[in-house]
Amino acid sequence: MNRSRSNAHRALALTAAGATALALAIAPAAAASAAPAAKCDNRNNNTVSKLLECVTAAGAMEHLQALQEIADANNGNRAADTSGYEASVDYVVDTMTAAGWQVSIDEFDYLVPVPTVHQLTPQDVMHEAGFFSAGSAEGSVTGAVVPIDLALANPAASTSGCEAADFANANLTGPADIVLVQRGVCEFGVKARNAQNAGAEAVVIMNQGNTPERSGIITNVTLIGANPTALDIPVVNTSFAAGSALAVPGSTATVSMFIENHPQKNVIAELPGVNSDNVVMAGAHLDSVPAGPGINDNGSGSAALLELAETMQKVKPQNTVRLAWWAAEEVGLVGSQAYVDGLSQGEKDRIGLYLNFDMVASPNFIYMVYDGDESTFEAPVVVPEGSIQIEDLFERYFTSVGQPYDDAEFSGRSDYEAFILAGIPAGGLFTGAEDEKSEEQAAIWGGTAGEWLDPCYHQACDDIGNVSMEALEINADAIALSVLAYAYSTELVNGVVGVDVPGGLVLPEPAGPEGTWAGGGGGLHPDHGHNAAE
User: Fold this and answer.
1) Contact predicate 525/433, CB 8 Å
2) C or N: which end of the chain has fewer Cβ atoms within 10 Å?
3) Contact (CB, 8 A) for 22 and 504
4) Strands, E, within 410-528: which ranges?
């Protein structure tokens, strides 16, 4: 049920109760001129006007260039559990330490599936192997490969392993039988469960081979679904070509599935405040996907926080400010979830709010704010009280600089999920991923209708050229304003009385979202989840 916007849209003066704020004129980014670097470095940027004068897209771009260079030196990416990610962590730690913040590493368990398909006869070859995100047991089996009703000549007709009857003529009485089944028609877990019930000690599911998309290893799927519980035997997958090789009579193989712990690192940095029991937290994920350097997704959010942190290092906040760079977001929000899971209830209670910045410089951008009041999207999660007021602040900022904005689904598909599930108010910004820009949106924000908001989303071309400086400039200022404002008072979010924002801050009533998502969309890509479909 959509919540009314009326309660959220009252006059906003982020000051102590009853105090009078001075009006603040905020110039649009295109008209603003940055202060000289020396001036910004040597003064206390404790007012919104001073901070926004010094936080720039050019400054954030220096950090993006560093992240690009890290990717270039590390196989083209900065994905979790790679040297590129480790180098990214080192860069953030060094930058934040030099800026005078209190920096710590939050290390957490990161369990990595390690599947193996090693054919022994009639050829000795290591085949490419894939894992299922849930449902397989660990173990290693060496034995004969037993193909089940494969359709190698006509892959589109494959129903291999979907029925118990498919195994009727298979001899699976030995101690180490490896069943080979082919993708098609029914869920993977059904095939694996039928094989286990028939007496298999391990299962290899080869891809179907009827299209190029169904020829390599299978990714991002689970064995749980119509098969409701995990199996007792190891189950892996491989390509159609590898499966065809394994199907040769007389084949033997070693099939293994193990889980290894490769601990990963979140970076946490604090600027202590007068009130250590009211923490204002903001975060961005630092990892990329393996396909590319991840400069928009999410170097943009990471760099904006670094630029902010360097610029506000001399600020003496009322509330403690805590910034986070998350690991392993791209493989299921792992780092942020591990962090929240590791907090005591008392530590969770100290976090007044969480702000999330994931993809804030998409080339074909739309300015979007997480829809905390559910005026456009009914959230699939419970939205904590106070989140509406965070949305309200961002909307007032965009209104103040004359920028149209829209809602982004509060879907739980980025690192704020763990916080809202813990009841912590949250909000954030987003400029778009794989949704196509409509003609209506192009008329409002410019750009190209019919193209993705980020044409290089999760691709190798998400590099230093895949960033809108205009969007980065506007959103870097929005990020800076929100963090500084809440560093002084979170009263409108969680009721904790703070102090006046130095210099005052009064923002206009929100102009309202453009409402261009009537047909749906607007959230982050759902591929952080997994499915059990065939």
Assistant:
1) yes
2) N
3) yes
4) 426-430, 506-507
Choosing from 329, 395, 409, 491, which is the catalytic residue?
Answer: 329
Q: Residue 365: its pLDDT value, please?
A: 98
- φ/ψ of 452, rounded to 5, equals -60, 150
Query: How many residues make up the chain in this entry?
Result: 534
What are the residue ranges in the chain where pLDDT is below 50? Answer: 1-32, 519-530
- The dihedral built from the CA positions of residue 340, 345, 346 and 350, taken in this order, carries a sign that is positive
pLDDT in the model for residue 350? 98
Give the per-residue pLDDT at 533.
61
Closest CA to 354 of 331, 392, 323, 375: 323
Is 62 a known active-site residue?
Answer: no
How many CA atoms does the CB half-sphere of 137 hold within 13 Å?
Answer: 16
Which pair of structure tokens corresponds to residue 50? 């001073």
The amino acid present at 342, given as its one-letter code, is: G
The label of the residue with tokens 């804030």 reads 360
Task: For residue 110, give the nearest of 419, 415, 267, 335 by alpha carbon.
Answer: 335
Q: Give the pLDDT confidence score for residue 223 in this predicted structure.
A: 96
Other beta carbons less than 10 A from residue 305's beta carbon: 28
Q: What are phi and psi of 313, to 5 degrees?
A: -65, -25
Domains observed in the chain: 12-110+263-516 (3.40.630.10), 112-261 (3.50.30.30)
Q: Let me know how many helices (H) and strands (E) the chain has, helices first.
A: 14, 17
> Packing angle between helix 83-98 and helix 57-72, nearest 10 degrees?
150
Neighbours of 128 (CB within 10 A): 13
Alpha helices in 99-250 (DSSP H): 188-198, 240-246
Distance (Å, rounded) from C-alpha 277 to C-alpha 95? 26
Count of CB atoms situated within 10 Å of the CB of 37: 12
Strands 351-357 and 368-370, sheet pairing: unpaired
Which residue intervals of 312-410 are DSSP H helices? 334-341, 345-350, 387-400
pLDDT value of residue 34: 65
pLDDT score, position 513:
97
Q: How is residue 176 annotated by DSSP?
A: S
